[in-house]
TrEMBL record:
InterPro entries: Sarcoglycan, Sarcoglycan_gamma/delta/zeta
Family affiliation: Belongs to the sarcoglycan beta/delta/gamma/zeta family.
Pfam families in the record: Sarcoglycan_1
Membrane-topology annotation of the record: Single-pass type II membrane protein
Gene Ontology terms: biological process: cardiac muscle tissue development; heart contraction
Transmembrane segments: none
Name used for this protein in its record: Zeta-sarcoglycan
Length: 181
């Protein structure tokens, strides 16, 4: 009828298509591997693989039920200059079935439960680098420098510290830690 309904231009630098909908189909079964129109782009292949050294960059949100690394490769989610936020209304679960789980930060690490509890369940729970309070001069403790048994104490603001163990509680006599926190 003389009307232009689509155009495919094959040039030395590019292949350009102008049409309402562009599709690439599998030769075996005819299923759509790639399609593009004004509403969006659909990739129908079994797997999308990005091989560039910088990975994939998305200008807006990404929705997917599953992200997985290649076998024997680490998976890394990174925000090099801002925050990384994971949110889910029914919970977020992180599991390391055959290895360690580590969380590290430069400043403060906050664990907060607004309606429940924070539950630590392990055969051993260690709190490293806790300050040790020194007993006041009225508390006799000649062996304080060799003390191996300590009492775990809590300041009114929640800060934890160790106090040399005695026959009774020594937290009050070592509360100099609370004054400087």
């Amino acid at each position: 009828m003389g009307q232009l309904t689509g155009q495919l231009t094959v040039g030395a630098d590019a292949v350009e298509a102008q049409c309402k909908r562009f599709e690439v189909r599998a030769s075996e079964d005819g299923r759509v591997l790639f399609s593009a129109d004004e509403d969006g782009i659909t990739i129908g292949a079994e797997k999308l693989k990005v091989t560039g050294t910088e990975g994939a960059v998305f200008g807006h949100s990404v929705e997917t039920p599953h992200i997985r690394a290649e076998p024997s490769q680490d998976l890394r989610l990174e925000s090099p200059t801002r925050s990384l936020i994971m949110e889910a209304p029914r919970g977020v679960q992180v599991s390391a079935a055959a290895g360690d789980f580590k969380a590290a930060c430069r400043k403060e690490l906050h664990l907060q439960s607004t309606e429940g509890e924070i539950f630590l369940n392990a055969a051993t729970i260690r709190l490293g680098n806790l300050p040790t309070g020194s007993p006041s001069s009225s508390s006799p403790s000649p062996s304080h420098s060799r003390q191996t048994v300590h009492e775990l104490c809590v300041c009114p603001n929640g800060k934890l510290y160790l106090s040399p163990a005695g026959a009774g509680s020594t937290c009050q006599s070592s509360s100099n830690i609370c004054l400087w926190s």
